[in-house]
Amino acid sequence: MLYLISDIHGNLLEFKQILKKIEFDGEKDNLIIMGDILDRGPDGIALLRYVKPYILDNSMELLLGNHELFAVMYLNGVLGEKNTDRVLDERTWTAFGGGDTLKSIKNMTAFEKKNLLSFLEHLPIYSEISSRYLGNVIVTHTGIDCNNYVMNADGTINVKSSIKKAFENNIYSYMVGMDLHQVPKKDKERFDQFIIVGHVPCFRLNKDMSNKFYRTDYYMDIDAGAGHMEQGGTLGCYCVTTDEEIYL
């Protein structure tokens, strides 16, 4: 089975519960974690340590989310300085839910910080998968940026190249943006691949404010709101193999 999960946000207990619920077997199953494993919940660094062995044996893959980017910025010493078009100091990161992560990092040795930075800096920004239900799919954290389209010769929008361009032009702006949800329909119709993202909790997208995954003809959002459990959010998992949605 191939599973996708996004925005776990430091909820180690809940992550273990959903792995148990789907009967995840690292010897025959695969899981792509679509960013934002850190912050908001208390156990972001512990989560990283928990999933790292799975990543090393290729049964799990972790993509870069904006909260991993915040940690990279801090470890690189750019918090509190100008980073592209936004200043992110420790107070702002804490306001974004990074307080526990910041505390954990400050308690690390210099060697541990160096290893963490190296690990986070090498996280991919997308993964490409094949689905019998959705076709050739790009899996990423935030989606696509309207100002960085790359066009194919036939007039369609090259999703993969557009993501790369946005990331290279302004990493911070791209990773914190939510342009995908404001893209005009005429542009969505020209996407050359279906997109699966997290980043924006589904209760902010669904008309009934539910945590159910938000599906459209062009993309799907699977952030079930684990970073906002005080607002009724939960942790959800999508099975690519069966098109099944699993929630705690």
From TrEMBL:
<feature type="domain" description="Calcineurin-like phosphoesterase">
    <location>
        <begin position="3"/>
        <end position="203"/>
    </location>
</feature>
<dbReference type="Pfam" id="PF00149">
    <property type="entry name" value="Metallophos"/>
</dbReference>
<dbReference type="GO" id="GO:0110154">
    <property type="term" value="P:RNA decapping"/>
</dbReference>
<dbReference type="GO" id="GO:0016791">
    <property type="term" value="F:phosphatase activity"/>
</dbReference>
<dbReference type="InterPro" id="IPR029052">
    <property type="entry name" value="Metallo-depent_PP-like"/>
</dbReference>
<dbReference type="GO" id="GO:0008803">
    <property type="term" value="F:bis(5'-nucleosyl)-tetraphosphatase (symmetrical) activity"/>
</dbReference>
<dbReference type="GO" id="GO:0005737">
    <property type="term" value="C:cytoplasm"/>
</dbReference>
<dbReference type="InterPro" id="IPR050126">
    <property type="entry name" value="Ap4A_hydrolase"/>
</dbReference>
<protein>
    <submittedName>
        <fullName>Serine/threonine protein phosphatase</fullName>
    </submittedName>
</protein>
<dbReference type="InterPro" id="IPR004843">
    <property type="entry name" value="Calcineurin-like_PHP"/>
</dbReference>
